[in-house]
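R.M. (postdoc): so does anyone remember the format we settled on? I'll just put the structure tokens first.
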């Protein structure tokens, strides 16, 4: 029994000894006695400079080459180290005297600075485009408002011209009514009834014109106005002063504030036959019309 236990313990002991003998012996790293700056390794760098056995040159070279790949392929790559990380790495590399790492970090920082300048220029360009676009929009809006107002004015002018032409044609009927009124002399009861019916029709016609903003130009007793009146004759008058209308030959009409047809009137020269008073009156008379009337 004791012999068997001893054999088992010796067996397990041998196994443990054999397992220990299979493990490789520990290796000891010996650092060189020369200064640290003579080596190409970077110790104590934060991410991404934590490797002590890999040269950092491929790391920075890959980051610079990947920039063109990002623009060509349009794919999102891993974000580059921030400026704070680069500055910290630059400080440690500078203190350790690693010129290779410092030059690479300087190139990387310069690349970031160039990228920042490009982005700044792009932002300023977009801002300028925004301002110019806003100015162009305001100009287009002002032009559109002016165009709309001009169209409204033209529309009103066209409507007014069309109404004036229509009223002018209706005024011919008014003249016919006026001439018939002057010629008719009702003697019998039958003629008086005809005249009354005629006057009622004429009254309705005049009311229709008034409902469309058609008004009569005032004449007798009013001062002569070359815009509203047209002088066909001049004569002396003991009742009216010089330049006052004494008789109306044909009615004038207005549509709202526009003259559709001026009134034909006779203007007073004042009392007495005075050349001094007759001379200035000629300026109020239209020469062509006055000559035609005198010939008749």
């Amino acid at each position: 029994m004791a012999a068997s236990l001893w054999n088992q313990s010796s067996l397990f002991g041998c196994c443990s000894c054999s397992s220990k003998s299979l493990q490789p012996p520990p290796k000891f790293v010996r650092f060189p006695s020369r200064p640290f700056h003579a080596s190409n390794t970077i110790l104590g760098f934060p991410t991404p400079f934590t490797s002590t056995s890999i040269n950092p040159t491929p790391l920075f070279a890959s980051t610079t080459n990947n920039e063109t790949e990002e623009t060509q392929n349009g794919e999102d790559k891993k974000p580059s180290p921030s400026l704070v990380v680069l500055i910290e790495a630059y400080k440690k590399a500078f203190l350790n005297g690693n010129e290779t790492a410092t030059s690479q970090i300087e190139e990387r920082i310069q690349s970031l600075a160039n990228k920042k300048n490009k982005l700044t220029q792009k932002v300023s360009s977009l801002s300028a485009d925004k301002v110019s676009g806003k100015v162009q929009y305001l100009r287009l809006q002002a032009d559109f408002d002016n165009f709309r107002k001009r169209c409204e004015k033209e529309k009103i002018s066209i409507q007014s011209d069309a109404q004036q032409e229509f009223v002018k044609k209706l005024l011919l009927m008014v003249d016919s009514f006026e001439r018939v009124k002057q010629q008719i002399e009702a003697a019998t009861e039958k003629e008086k009834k005809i005249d009354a019916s005629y006057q009622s029709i004429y009254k309705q016609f005049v009311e229709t014109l008034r409902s469309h903003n058609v008004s009569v130009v005032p004449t007798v007793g009013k001062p002569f106005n070359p815009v509203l009146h047209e002088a066909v004759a001049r004569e002396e008058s003991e009742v009216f002063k010089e330049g006052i209308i004494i008789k109306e030959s044909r009615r004038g009409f207005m549509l709202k504030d526009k003259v559709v047809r001026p009134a034909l009137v006779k203007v007073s020269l004042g009392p007495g036959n005075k050349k001094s008073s007759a001379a200035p009156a000629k300026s109020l008379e239209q020469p062509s019309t006055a000559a035609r009337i005198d010939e008749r």
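R.M.: ...and that's the designed sequence above, right after the tokens. Also worth knowing: Confidence is low (pLDDT under 50) at residues 1-23, 26-79, 275-296. The two ends are 173 Å apart (CA to CA).
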